[in-house]
Amino acid sequence: MREEPLHRYIADELRRQILDEHLVPGYQLPSEHELAQAFGASRGTVRQALNQLRGEGAIAARRGARWVVLAAPLVQSFSELLSFSAWARAEGHEPGGTEVELSRRRATQHDAETLNIAAGESIYRLLRVRTLSETPVMIERTTFIEPIGRLLVDLDLDSESIYEQLGDHGIVFARARHTIDAIPATAEDARLLDIPRRTPLLRQRRASTSQTGQPLEWSDDRYRGDVVAFVIDNTAMSGNLERLLAAEEDAESGESKLS
Amino acid sequence: MREEPLHRYIADELRRQILDEHLVPGYQLPSEHELAQAFGASRGTVRQALNQLRGEGAIAARRGARWVVLAAPLVQSFSELLSFSAWARAEGHEPGGTEVELSRRRATQHDAETLNIAAGESIYRLLRVRTLSETPVMIERTTFIEPIGRLLVDLDLDSESIYEQLGDHGIVFARARHTIDAIPATAEDARLLDIPRRTPLLRQRRASTSQTGQPLEWSDDRYRGDVVAFVIDNTAMSGNLERLLAAEEDAESGESKLS
DNA sequence: CAGTGGTCTAGACCACGTG
DNA sequence: ACGTGGTCTAGACCACTGA
């Protein structure tokens, strides 16, 4: 019945067995040849599935030896990554949001550079406080390019995921680059999250683009550091985490510099 | 002359062109057929290279249309990720370290669970303060399993990367899971980093395993939040970032809970 | 509708590990 | 020595994009 690529079916099946702990860390998988026969696929197709799981950090291979189970893979949903709502529901919480402000403005120099437009062009800025089970845990300050911002006006910004709703309009987010650091809560942050000033916040700055490389939005999200953490898997062959010196890009807030 | 897989040569070549900005975001790559001819490879080999670059967030594809350049990929060296020294040098800084303490202890309950050993077994704990150009920027509290810890005693822990030195002994780190959050500096943190108490720190807790899934170490690294940030790329097809609620695992430090 | 990427096959040779 | 994963080829069909 299913209209699904065979390599994905194989990957899903193996992932399910790992998550169900039928395959525990250290376990050796059957050889690619055996898997190919078992699934009625060619070896190339089996390898496509295995490489997918390797990218998720679930398994590893060494030449000459069989594939080995490393650990349960992360959930790995791209939508859960952009969307607070989708993530919260997957965690079993009731997501909420309070639209504090949606305004049309002219792009600052920073907006222009990040969104690849000219300074002074129209952009939309959205400020929301997101809640989990009534408790505010995150402040979201997002800047959208004009065509997307115009759509936002007609959307329900209070509770629904805007990314799901934008998807219905054919707006697809394909890629995002995240910069994560720790900063003290400003006076406004403290007021919105109902916490003391200078409480450590986990800040995630994000720039998202479409499938064709067109910048769609950038966002400055600040989480209560005592409630939310980020988890990243990476392996020797794949993974995309990098440390970075907090650069001079932030001339706005007086940052302390090295030497 | 070169003893290198063809698909890696192709990936390196295309990545170099993107980094050199010969290929700018939005640019359409030649078709897979054309690339195959240009590099004297089969289409399958070219696709292997393109999929590598897709995993790095550098390019994206849509059925029916050509591959599109998205952005410059991250450096993506696994060793730079584990190793403060390797990272610092790549950033053009002089890494330094002060070994504050290396001790042999009995595994706590948490050690035992993380390293998959029995509580009470021998482990080694290393505390280091790492510096960039003489300025302390990070505190590293690492716990190693006994066989690795024993090697540490003979290593130069003051300035060299222990991971590079362990590699010479055949100890290979293959996979790591990172949990990143923000916490206030404790009194000891503040003293070691020479900063005020409760300054926001970027905490990275890491668990590393070998190629066969054997846990090798876990670490609690705390960075000055105003100096170091983490950067992550992720795409709809690949990427491994996940938000997580700070769970009850940390019963040690009194964390505030949600409802 | 011509060209593109996505999927899949059947085979081949090699370098490496484990017994 | 044998089996394993890593690499590579040549060809096929399909779904989709874009002119």
Write the layout of secondary structure elements.
2 copies of one chain form a homodimer.
Chain A lengths: L5 H14 L12 H8 L3 H13 L3 E2 L7 E2 L8 H5 L1 H7 L4 E12 L2 H7 L6 E11 L2 E11 H7 L9 H7 L6 E10 L2 H7 L6 E10 L5 E10 L3 E8 L5 E5 L14
Chain A binds a DNA duplex (19 and 19 nucleotides) through helix 3.
What does it look like?
The structure is a homodimer of 259-residue chains. Chain A is α+β, with helices and mostly antiparallel strands. Chain A has nine helices and ten strands. A six-stranded antiparallel sheet of chain A has the order 3-4-5-8-7-6. In chain A, a hairpin with a 7-residue loop joins β1 and β2. At the A-B interface, β2, α4, β6, β7 and β9 of A face β2, α4, β6, β7 and β9 of B. β6 of chain A pairs antiparallel with β9 (228-235) of chain B, so a sheet runs across the interface. Chain A binds a DNA duplex (19 and 19 nucleotides) through residues 5-7, 31-33, 41-45, 47-48, 50, 61-67.
Give the assembly state of these chains.
homodimer
Give me the Rg of chain A, rounded: 22 Å
Mean pLDDT of chain A comes to 87
Overall 3D shape of chain A = elongated
First-last Cα distance of chain A: 64 Å
Number of helices of chain A: 9
Largest sheet of chain A: 6 strands, antiparallel
Question: What would you call the structural class of chain A?
Answer: alpha+beta
Query: Considering DSSP H and I runs of 4 or more, what fraction of the residues of chain A is helical?
Result: 25-40%
> What's the SSE pattern of chain A?
HHHEEHHEHEEHHEHEEEE
Number of strands of chain A: 10
* Fraction of residues in β-strands of chain A: 25-35%
